[in-house]
Design a protein that fits this description.
This protein is α+β, with helices and mostly antiparallel strands. Helices cover 36% and strands 22% of the residues. The strands form six sheets. Strands 2, 3, 4, 5, 8, 17 and 18 form a seven-stranded mixed sheet that branches.
Length: 642
């Protein structure tokens, strides 16, 4: 009976292997017994603007690889390394550490003499390993010993080292980005195990335009990306490490060719595939014009008084109805003597936060309406607010009797101060005692966040900052918060804020339009509403009307083309900066912000322009350079020229 059971079991296993589970067991066998290796990095997908202009492409580069042949000898590999030195005309250098390893290979007898009899005895007794002995030998190889090597031997050490690096069956990278002549000469030499491949490098047809937004890729897999090994990456893979290259890595990444190693020869299994193309919402025509305008005014500022601390400006253009970004520019001026150059710092629109001043007053009005501190048409006579133990706080001028619309149009600080006190539960009287708590600040910050201020925008870039919140609680700081002189906000959050005022919805900001594989769209951006304003339509319309008045007859009159029919808000802020980066705030400066959308009744574009440190306020003449206004007006004229 036992024999019958054994026979049936054997028959079942044989049948299972041969028929129903044949593919499974075959695959498992191949995994164990076959060696599959990958080629060099495949070309990544391109990055293009909305009109098809290529912003990032690939350039094929000549690469020399080595795959160890069957039964190769050490002397043959030494000979290959020397021939590569001659073919490349002693072009590639070596280092002392590699040279010491090479000395051990070339002159093992000499190296063995560097080990004492006692150390050899320890090795024989397994108290030292061969690695220990090699380490001792390398430590004892002197410069005089290395100088006995010929130049050919010294230079060939580099190639020999690269030929031994990694697993025996790996393809080894020996040379990259060599000339066509060098490439041809090496391949024509028909050296054993040496073959050529075309690898890929990123190229940027428009130089530094959007460079920090587009991002960079690594040379090899970075230490902080080691989790990608679980997703099939190898240590030699190049990956996106910043900007869009990082954010869309899984789509841009190409698929490397795979080879099966048979008798130490390679059989192609799957060819390399280019990554998917990333199509942006960016309109290159707008982008280049915005950059040109900023650069022109950075240079013009050199002729203006009090601008010694001004060095950069930021500008963003978007479609407020979708959140799609059409231009995103940050340009920094680098001055070296009489020479001026420019650096792309566009990525700072999501990383750096600034005091934006009165530009936040639309959101401050919303706080007043929501907390019943003011209503449509509420009027105050503009003046100064004097609280106990706090210096008087005023508007820039006495603006007379103003309602909520004129308070926005003329940018009354007093109106916001009185509103903030009412939000905190106080009706203002001269020199009154006021106590505020964190809840009063949160009434502002919570509402501000529904507009996009002090929170992330959802933009498709890695490591977006939320801005910077003040930590102290005091009545005067609450009033400062209401006029944009306390918390700091990123330029990207200011863009989402003005878009929210334009539409009533806080829309996710987006740079990606679609991801394409040849002609097929595999991912397409769709407008995403993060939240709707918890504000009655009549109040939103009131803020929109106030913003329209800013452009028609208020502080923003000279900022926008009349053709634009825009609505927006200006902002100025005063702050101390560390001018010489020594840890001390020593310069008192003015910064400027302008936000708008247009046309006000059917928004097509929104615009944010922020210029930090435009004017030195320590100077007695009091001149304030109109740089931000000039930039905003020129961009407006371009966008709405017809």
């Amino acid at each position: 009976m036992l024999i019958i059971i054994i026979f049936i079991t054997f028959f079942y296993k044989t049948y299972s292997l041969a028929y129903p589970n044949h593919e499974y067991y075959l695959n498992e066998y191949q995994k164990i017994n076959n060696i599959i290796i990958e080629g060099s990095n495949a070309p990544r997908g391109r990055i293009l603007d909305i009109n098809g202009h290529i912003l990032v492409d690939n350039k094929g580069i000549n690469t020399i690889m080595y795959h160890k042949p069957n039964n190769v000898t050490k002397s043959l590999e030494l000979d290959i390394a020397k021939k590569l030195v001659i073919l490349t005309n002693y072009k590639y250098s070596y280092n002392e550490n590699i040279l010491k390893d090479y000395y051990l290979v070339l002159y093992p007898d000499n190296a063995n003499k560097l080990i004492t009899n006692e150390e050899k005895e320890l090795y024989n007794n397994r108290k030292l390993t061969s690695s220990d002995l090699n380490k001792l030998k390398k430590e004892r190889i002197t410069l005089d010993m290395l100088n006995t090597l010929t130049d050919l031997e010294k230079y060939s050490s580099r190639f020999y080292y690269l030929m031994q690096d990694g697993y025996m069956y790996d393809n080894k990278l020996l040379l990259k980005d060599i000339t066509d002549l060098e490439y041809a000469q090496i391949l024509e030499a028909n050296l054993p195990g040496i073959f050529g491949e075309i690898s890929w490098e990123r190229i940027y047809p428009y130089n530094d335009t959007l460079k920090t937004i587009l991002g960079t890729i690594s040379e090899t897999l970075p230490a902080d990306k080691k989790e990608l090994l679980k997703e099939g990456y190898s240590l030699t893979d190049r990956v996106g490490i910043s900007g869009l290259e990082e954010y869309y890595e899984e789509y841009l990444r190409g698929k490397k060719a795979t080879y099966k190693v048979i008798n130490n020869n390679l059989e192609l299994l799957t060819p390399a595939e280019k990554g998917n193309d990333l199509i942006l919402e960016i309109d290159l025509n707008i982008q280049l014009k915005v950059e040109e305008i900023i650069k022109k005014n950075l240079i013009k500022a050199n002729t203006m008084a009090n601008t010694k601390y001004y060095k950069e400006s930021y500008a963003l253009v978007s479609d407020p109805t979708t959140g799609a970004i059409k231009a995103i520019a940050g340009i920094r001026k680098i001055t070296n003597g009489r020479d001026t150059s420019f650096q792309d710092v566009s990525i700072n629109v999501i990383k750096n936060a600034y005091t934006v001043g009165s530009a936040v007053k639309g959101a401050s009005m919303a706080v007043g309406y929501l907390n019943k501190a003011i209503d449509i048409g509420t009027t105050f006579t503009d003046g100064c607010v004097k609280l106990a133990n706090i210096p008087a706080k005023c508007s820039y001028a006495r603006l007379g009797r103003i309602n909520d619309l004129r308070a926005l149009a003329l940018s009354s600080n007093y109106y916001q101060f009185i509103t903030a006190l009412k939000v905190a539960g106080y009706n203002y009287t001269y020199n009154m005692q006021v106590k505020v708590d964190e809840e009063d600040f949160n009434k502002y910050r919570t509402t501000f966040a529904t507009f996009g201020l002090g929170t992330t925008t959802g933009i498709d870039l890695p490591s977006e900052a939320t801005g910077l919140k003040g930590t102290k609680i005091a009545p005067d700081l609450l009033m400062n918060l209401a006029i944009g002189q306390y918390d700091l906000y990123t330029p990207a959050s200011m863009l989402q804020y003005i878009n929210t005022i334009a539409t009533g919805n806080r829309l996710k900001l987006n740079i990606m339009h679609s991801i394409n594989n040849k002609e097929a769209i595999i991912l397409e951006n769709k407008p995403t509403v993060l939240n709707k304003l918890a504000l009655e339509p009549k109040y939103l319309e009131r803020i929109q009307t106030g913003f329209r008045e800013v452009i028609k007859s208020g502080t923003g009159y000279w900022y926008a083309s009349p053709l634009a029919l825009g609505a927006g808000k200006t902002g100025t802020s005063e702050s101390y900066i560390d001018s010489d980066y020594n840890g001390t705030l020593d310069a008192y400066v003015l910064s400027n912000t302008f936000i708008m959308y247009a046309p006000y009744n059917n928004p097509k574009y929104s615009l944010v322009v922020i210029s930090p440190n435009t004017s030195d306020l320590n100077v007695k003449n009091g001149y304030r350079a109109p740089i931000n206004r000039l930039i905003a007006r020129e961009i407006n004229d371009f966008l709405f020229s017809s």
